[in-house]
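Appendix B. Chain record.
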Amino acid sequence: MRILVTGGLGYIGAHTVVALIEQNFDVVVVDDLSNTSLSALDGIEKITGVKPDFFEVDLRNQSDVNSFFESQAQIDGVIHFAASKAVGESVTNPFLYYHNNIGGILNLLSGLQKFPNAKFIFSSSCTVYGQADELPITESAPIKPAMSPYGNTKQIGEEILSDMAKADQIQAIALRYFNPIGAHESAEIGELPLGVPQNLVPFITQTAAGLRNQLSVFGADYPTPDGTCIRDYIYVVDLAEAHVVALQRLLSGKNQSNLEIFNLGTGKGSSVLEVINAFEAVSGKKLPYQIVARREGDVTAAYADTQHANQVLGWKAKNDLTHAIATAWKWEQKIRGI
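Structure tokens predicted for this chain:
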């Protein structure tokens, strides 16, 4: 089975490529290298002993996408990660997000018409729920008006797949993840954002490594126990394995509809300050941080109800916050030579 992974050298993508190879899938990777580097390809090979086929393609360029598909004799499934992914950046640069995230999936689906039976896994997000009325968040929670362009692109992506599924044009699973953190235990791949990190844990590890002067905590006046935002932090390797399980579900015809949706999280929420405290406990380092104003687009709290994923998909997160943060710090130490 040949599986296309778009954004396959990115953070979650690279870990999923490893998980696919470990399950003996033949993997082809497409990435535009806008937020990663070819070192991820080397890391995948070091872990698995396999170097997957790689094509540098910008999904916004339809002719390049078409050329890629013309070069392929077979594609049995697609896992679509390639997208811009930072809430804050999307608020300040919305066009980039619509162009990349919506233009990309449309061009991909257009090129994929060559392989009409290919199964499709969509990298969605808990941001589609906005600030949910009830916690934990189930898959039946209402989709709220997006609080950021990033969140809106995930909603629109799901809507495109939903309409295609209703027209019997695709069989797909949308995976709504919460907050992936950590790195592969080998420290051969991990989160390596280009420029200033947009996510909490790499900003924490870079601050501890001396690359950043201090961490900014966006708001301490939220209606939460310690005043900071609460998120469901899921270990990236657990998350990667969920993609393989979802793909196998589609390939074996076990899906109950043309579009299924699953939340991927641990079911436990942790505040920003709890994550900082967990890092300090793991690393033995005191982290300099300051409380600053809230960041536009952030919700107060979000954590998953995992029953649907546990019982129907047959997947469950195995690792806790401490383990995930320990692997993130191990990765940071390795790449910085600490």
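Further analysis of this model is presented in Appendix C.
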